[in-house]
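hey team, just a heads up i'm posting the complex here instead of the shared drive bc the drive is being weird again. everything in one block, sequence lines first with there labels, then the predicted structure for the whole assembly after. its two chains so it's a bit long, scroll down
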Amino acid sequence: MKKKSKLKKAIIIFGITFLAVVAVLTYFAGTIEYMLLPRVSVANIESGQISGEPVTEQGVCLVPNMSVVESDGIAYIFILYPREDNTAYIEEVNVQVRDRNNMYCEIKLDPTFTSYSVVYETSRDLVNGDKVVVEAN
Amino acid sequence: MKKLKKLKKLPKYILLAAIAAFFLFPVIYMLAMSVMTSEEVSRILDFSSDGFKSIDLIPQVFSLEQYYQVFFRRADYLLEFWNSIIITVPTVIGQTVVCALAAFAFGKLEFPGRDKLFFVYIILLILPTQVTLVPNYIVLNNMGLLNSFLAVILPGMFSAFGVCLLRQSVRYIPDAFIEAARMDGASYINIFLKIILPQIKGGLVTLFLLCFIDNYNLIEQPLAYFNDSEKYPLAVTMSEIGVNDAGIVFACGVMFMIPPLLIYYIGQDDVSSPFTLSDKG
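-- predicted structure starts here --
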């Protein structure tokens, strides 16, 4: 009987603690999430070619070398969909690398994305659809 | 002799253990999946191929990734958990109070048309929720309560099932108790609070638990009455989580089942006796 009431007491304490922890996590959810988001540096996608010649083809543009990720022969960049609170969602967009020098990479991508910003530096590996904090532009 | 008796009981225990394992399987499966990586969960839940799918209960890699996502990265699930609590707790308290009062009236008070009125009330038991959804929607719309938590809480407080359950408990109390109290000058409120309530504790706790589970798992009413998806309880969201978030469903499920389990454990002693008198004194 005593054992049972002790267990009941422990369960009540666990229940109250559980609700309190969830309440604290909910209250500070915004702060916690912001602290855990990857920090990224971004640059604008600029129209142009490495050779300096005027662009005649749609979708040809220059992005920082570091922004192009290549894996298994496929090259892609992360473009940003900014939100109001200094954060943004990223989307993985496949590109075709045409040329590069020390700083820039000449790529061809879907012309609808040429007005977006691109991630060139990140504090953590990114995955398509991640939310990030934009640190520098 | 004793050994033989024990051996005779063995098949019974094996059968009971098998039945228990069968009923507990979904819970064990949920717990196992909640500690797997999202890749492993996606692989297990990939039913695109027709071949036989094995049921994996032991994770290849033990991971708390899903819990990390739910508690630290996806605040929307926590908010929806609180939406569930905000909807459930007032509904359950309200329903228990309303049903106890109604049960006392239907069970012990004499007034004209009592049994006919109770019969009409019972008819509500037969109607499925979906039937009353549209009339309730119209009433709530006229009251300006749509898209607020009260839209779910207020209709939820009036349950025909609860009244029936508690009326049965109230009827077990001998009329002599009430007559004696009346002769001593006790008011009906005093009789209700000091004689009826202590004796139907089992029924109240049973109703509280059943009502908690019922309202905690509401899906149709929030979907019908709330335009704002931020007000949806976790039960609605869990039924809508897509394949990409499949792993999170299991961690959410574990979080979601903790409050009912705790409440059941606290009240389980009284659940076993809803129709017997609780006040032995």
